[in-house]
């Protein structure tokens, strides 16, 4: 089963994005994993758009690090969900434990709950980053 998960990670399919999807990226900084960005762009065939993009998008990734304000994360989740069409995939990406900026999954879960979202179990999305998929209460599984 680990090989299946690794293959999905290598192809960015686990994010739930599809060809033609427009994916918005929030809180980008020079520490992000460019391989994740490249895999999403390869899968969708579209460049990522930044948080200033103000039309509907098909998916969202939020890069979040410990030390950032938890209330800011809740606000960012609310803002990102507002432009997310049809309950598309919304992910919070955090550095893995032991890496600079590593965040507790309980912090992400708390911020998600404040924003009216459920947080899934963290997944490994690269060597240095975990991802947590969020869903609005009452949506999906």
TrEMBL record:
Protein name in the entry: DUF3052 domain-containing protein
One Pfam assignment: DUF3052
Superkingdom per UniProt: Bacteria
